[in-house]
Amino acid sequence: MPSLLPILVLSVAPLLMGVLLAFTDAELVRSPDYQFVGVDNFTRLMGSSFFWDSFRIGMTWAVSVTLLQLVAALGLAQLLNSGLRLQALTRVLALIPWAMPPVVVAIMWKMIYSPNAGPLNAFLGSLGLPDDINWLADFSTALPAVIVVGVWVGMPQTTVTLLAGLQQIPDELHEAAAIDGAGAWRRFTAVTLPSLRPIVTSITSLNFIWNFNSFSLVYVLTEGGPGGRTMLPMLFTYLEAFKNRNIGYAAAMGVVLVVVVVALLAVYLRSQLRDDRFETKKKGGLS
Amino acid sequence: MRVFAQQLVRPAQYVALAGYILFLGFPLLWLVSASVKSSAELNSLVVNLLPQEWHWANYSEALARQGLVSSAGNSAMVALASTALVILIALPASYVLARLKGTIRVAGVGWILVSQVFPVILVILPLFLILRTIGLTDSLVGLTLVHTTYTMPFALWMLQGYVAAIPVDLEEAGAMDGGNRLVVLRRIVFPLLAPGVVATAMFSFVSSWNEFFFALVLLQSPENYTLPITLSTFIGGEGKVALGPLAAGSVLAAIPSIVFFSIMQKKLTGGLMAGAVKG
């Protein structure tokens, strides 16, 4: 039991302190002197349009990246599971983005998106398309551009996870479905997807949390710009705490974000579990 | 018709695979290519994947650049120290956690999962205040403590999974043979746990090596910067960036984690999902 003590001191206590800070008027000044102010920070937050703008951008970012990751990874995992050549190369490629430091990833994509000397604009130019887009600085392209980078970073891990799941599905299931006359698409929806379901549920939940809480990638890519178009909640809270020096207020934002994410996950996991139960019942009824 | 469609499947699959390889691989290739281009070529409007002349000097320039090597040293120190702390604390705790039953175990595992949802801002604010009162904000010691706190839950999660995989019967058999508790731990549990400890240690080393946010908040003086911070300062200023050395430095910075992940790929995924399904 005493071996659990350091965990309490190092991990549990700080996080609880963080939550408590949300109910104070703490500021980042030399002589910290702060008091409990109840839910003042939260009522102030409710009326802050900047915070909710950032929140909306964060949701757009996290939902788009998580969904695109899932779709792209599902496709790649299927390809890797169907006995093509070039498997080894693709597996290595599917690993590296996951392993790279976020700062390096951001530096790399800044080069790709570079308006003058970047390969993306050069490629578009060679096709006769407009070749002067400033991807990361244009109001309309900045968010989609960082979302693509988010997918690039997160897709590999999802792919590896889904591939492990695909390999667990017994071949007999596919064969039986094929004998019953099911085409490739039908086999995918009737055999592959249901079998992958628990894995898809857990990896999308994790991806959503990680994406919603991500900071470094977008901070180095755009610093939240242009004009706040990529101001993810983590960037917003960082600026509030360490530039505007309102620690208590920033902690309150953090608490709101935790509550919302937990609530969304609860709804999602619940619906998944209910569907599972329904599926089992259906199966039980048939046999 | 059906046969015709089936003949089309393979080529279509290869086209799709090529698309994926391009999307995943091209940015990497571009970074490596930029790391061997001269700055004249990098700033010119002629964009080629292969450099006109191979400019290996970028690598020596990156290494000679003020700060890059010393911040890599800082990164390595923080990563090694926090890894040692994490293992030292998480090893006994994870053993207890995995072998306990009832409410404490549920609370412990529940805590690990909840802490994953906490945004970094809620982690850093209290730690920042604590470190400031003891004067450790702009210090590598302070950063080590923060990395330790941050990596701990996931390290616990990994390690308790490895402990749980060791059958209790083995320990009981050891005890029956007259071994006392310590002997059983040393002779039976630790050897079986060694691969899990190595994996967890590598995981925590790489998390710390790659970490950016906490270092950004805590470190003020350039001589304390870790590698990710130093790299990010290179692209800060408008335009005046030596892209070639920056790309070379980035390639070098990515090597430790790429090595780690190539060793760990299968285990990490397996462990993650085994936990998720059980939990």
From TrEMBL, chain A:
Compartments it resides in: Cell membrane
Start and end residues of each ABC transmembrane type-1 domain: 55-268
InterPro entries (alphabetical): ABC_transporter_permease, MetI-like, MetI-like_sf
Annotated transmembrane regions: 59-80, 92-113, 133-153, 196-221, 247-269
Pfam families linked to this entry: BPD_transp_1 (PF00528)
Main location: membrane
Keyword Nucleotide-binding: no
Membrane topology term: Multi-pass membrane protein
Keyword field: Cell membrane, Membrane, Transmembrane, Transmembrane helix, Transport
Keyword Zinc (UniProt): no
Similarity comment text for this entry: Belongs to the binding-protein-dependent transport system permease family.
Protein name (record): Sugar ABC transporter permease
Lineage: Bacteria, Bacillati, Actinomycetota, Actinomycetes, Micrococcales
Automatic annotation (TrEMBL), chain B:
CDD domains on file: TM_PBP2
Subcellular location(s) of the protein: Cell membrane
One Pfam family per UniProt: BPD_transp_1
Chief site of localization: membrane
Stored PROSITE patterns: ABC_TM1
Domain ABC transmembrane type-1 per the UniProt entry, residue ranges: 72-264
Keywords on record: Cell membrane, Membrane, Transmembrane, Transmembrane helix, Transport
Topology in the lipid bilayer: Multi-pass membrane protein
Record-annotated membrane-spanning stretches: 12-32, 76-97, 109-130, 150-168, 188-209, 241-263
Sequence similarity: Belongs to the binding-protein-dependent transport system permease family.
Protein name: Carbohydrate ABC transporter permease
